[in-house]
Amino acid sequence: MTVKSIFRHETLLALLLVAVLIVLSFQSDRFFTVSNLLNQGRLMTEIGLIAIAMTFVIATGGIDLSVGSILGLTAILTGVFWQNVGMPLAVAACAAIAVGSFAGFCNGLIITRFNVPPLIATLATLALYRGLAEGISQARSVRGYPEWFYVLGQGEVLGVPTQLWILLLAAVLASIILAYTRWGRTVYAIGSNEVASRFSGLSVEHTKLALYTASGFAAALAGVIFVSRVSTTRSDMGTGIELDAITAVVLGGTSIFGGRGTILGTVIGLCLIQALKNGLSLAGVKGDGTIMLIGAVLILAILASNLFERSGTR
Amino acid sequence: MTAPYVSLTGMSKSFVGVKVLKDVSFDVRPGEVHALLGENGAGKSTLIKMMAGLYTPDAGTIVVDGKEMKFASTRDATAAGIATVYQELLLFPEMTVAENVFLGHYPRTALGIIDWPEVRARTRQLLDQLDTFDLDVDTKVLSLSVAQRQRVEIAKALSKNARVLIMDEPTASLVEADVQRLMAVVRQLRERGVAIVYVSHRMSEIFALADRVTVLRDGAHVGTRDIGEVDERELVSMMVGRPIDSLFPKAEAAIGETVLEVKNLNHGRHVRDISFALRKGEILGIAGLVGSGRTELALTLFGMTPATSGEILLDGKPVRIASPRQARDLGIAYVPEDRGLQGLVKSMAIRKNVSMASIEGVSSGIFIKAGAEAQRALDAVKRLGVRCRSIAQPVGELSGGNQQKVVIAKWLQTNPKVLILDEPTRGVDVGAKAEIHTIMGELVKQGVAILMISSELPEVLGMSDRLLVMNGGRVTGVLDRAEATPERVGAAMTRLETGEAA
User: Would you call A180 and B356 a contact, using CB atoms and an 8 Å cutoff?
Assistant: First the structure.
């Protein structure tokens, strides 16, 4: 792993993004407009927040499949705390986010304390948390939130969707942490060689615990934004969002085996997927065709990056 | 003196523009053992692979039995009577001993069918010639030990009427008793007039077996001598290219007060009731067979497998060590046995590996100060003489010796009071080994206390002030430098659990 090879993957991806944007803007004149692009930014915030936290998790060689369920659980709890328990909405949302973070903490605890592989642990909690969400909601949805709450998911600040500011802030903070701090270094070290990290006195367990908690927090925050954006809560919210997030992360050049990856890559990967989804649907391509194309792009990007890497390091 | 059976003259070979062998000449006579010596990367393997027909030389001639030959493949070399026993044995585990020995040249009956009774009888005969009466020709190879497989390989070479036998580090993975047996086989083959090319790192074997020795360095021929003309020191300096003062330069350091004291330490089956004291400026060697609990003791002291009972006193104060992080903060450093797995993050740059255990020291708040980190890495690389292109180079690209120096550098950043070295020179070439020993000497002079685990008896004997011998998880002997002889240490290593010996 060298600085150059990371640079290469991200440059490649950015070029691909530009190419896709150009092609799509010729397909439909409604695609390359400020309002459409901002709206796409609004739509990708939830996946984006999750993908940013997921980048850290995957860079340690782990994975978090339960994020979609945590999102759903948080959404349901926001509604329940507000309507049924009678908390003020702001408090209810914070409490729900706290529960979501705790759910992430539990993932971390299962993984570090009992040495359960992350894939298995979060696969189990994916079912568990979704089941909880469904049990609590009893298939009822909560609507009729006060007007101020919709600012988060539907409003604008300085002409840009509110949640896009949150995503931007999260991306900048996460980039700095991953690239320039001891924590970021520890993440890469764990992902490259966990045994040697432990033998070097790095706090492997604490770091992992913190990361899965952060992943839960990100999913929970995304849950509240989701509720605000669609004006309602349902227990099936966020189903399958973990796969979208993982796709963005992997497309962004993070190695699924850990040790390599950047936030910039993840963000570009995210934009690429969102642009393809939106642009193709505007161009009249059906949903299943879009999914196939995203799969193909993912495989091609990874192949190309592997090819570059091999010729780069030799 | 007989004429050489094989002689190579002016052999050169390049791989992708890099000259790995430059104008090397080598010959071997019937009935002699010719040892081939050199550090890793000196060109030994390339030379023997040319002799075996695996590589074709860029320049040079091969003369076999007076006739100039060109080997296009291993088949040609085999036909010329040259056979090789490689380090990694190339047998088929699912086939029997007899099937392996005659694979590819089975004797056949008049009808062209493989003559199995003949195969088995001739295999038996070959093994008997090697004094290997205990090996059944119908056993599958997978159930054999490494030493037995090696003898099957030799039998296989002899079945092709080999006149020259090339042995590439044949004792690298053998235990002592098997080494003795192999040496007897080699002597016997020499008696029968086979020419033997013997590649090994182990000086004791070379002096016990070889008639002549050739040293290569950086792909060039340094010299060929009769074994009677050279001593160990001279051979080492030929290999390394500069005189080495002493193989184990034990630096005299002032030994101070007790730093680490361990009382009745226990963990599992491998650390049982261990007590000892380690003083400032002292090197305490730990000797013992593999599985005697040496590494487990180190892991317990380092907090990897925390002690279940017993006391650890550091500077006289009782401490509890529950994690490597705590050990590090208390001033205990551990350079682990398995460099690649435990010691280094190979894909990361030297700079990042050096700072890994002392990352707080090059940070302000949570941010890493890249300048300070680079400066420390540069200093460490210079101080320990790590040979690298730059500190941004991934450690995985370095040689074994330089990798080990990076691990040591990483732990020196933490300014340890107690440095535990587990097999510090395993898989390290002679030059780097001497450098690591010199570093150890400098450290004890600065007052660091060193606990050194090593499987290499001469190293433990040469470097230690005192010696702790372990067996079955217990201490079976504590010997002072003056009284530590190989015999005494060996006896303590195999002594049954006397328990109270310490």
Answer: no
Question: In angstroms, rounded to a whole number, what is the distance separating the alpha carbons of residues B292 and B271?
Answer: 9
Total length of chain B: 502
pTM for this one? 0.75
Instruction: Select from B346, B356, B367 the residue whose CB has the most chain A CBs within 10 Å, as the one to mutate to test that interface.
Output: B356
Work out how many domains chain B is built from and give that number: 3
pLDDT in tens, B89-133: 788 888 999 999 998 888 888 888 988 999 999 999 898 888 888
In a domain, B478, yes or no: yes
Reported ipTM: the value is: 0.85
- Chain A hits for B342, Cβ within 8 Å: 195-196, 199
Vertex A129, ends A124 and A133: CA angle to 5°?
150
Min Cα separation B473/chain A (Å): 22
Rounded Cα distance between B375 and B268, Å, is 43
Domain boundaries, chain A: 45-265
* Whole-angstrom distance, CA of residue B487 vs CA of residue B128: 33
Closest CA to A154 of A220, A75, A232: A232
pLDDT classification of A311: cutoffs 50, 70, 90? very low
Q: Which helix (H) or strand (E) holds A69?
A: helix A67-80
Give the one of B334, B347, B367 whose C-beta lies nearest to A192's C-beta.
Answer: B347
- Positive or negative, the Cα torsion across B367, B371, B376, B378? positive
* Integer Cα distance of B37 and A17 in angstroms: 57
Nearest to B368 among A180, A197, A198 (CB): A180
Same domain, B77 and B157: yes
pLDDT digits over A156-175, tens only?
Answer: 889 889 999 999 999 999 99
- State which of B397, B414, B431 marks the end of a domain: B414
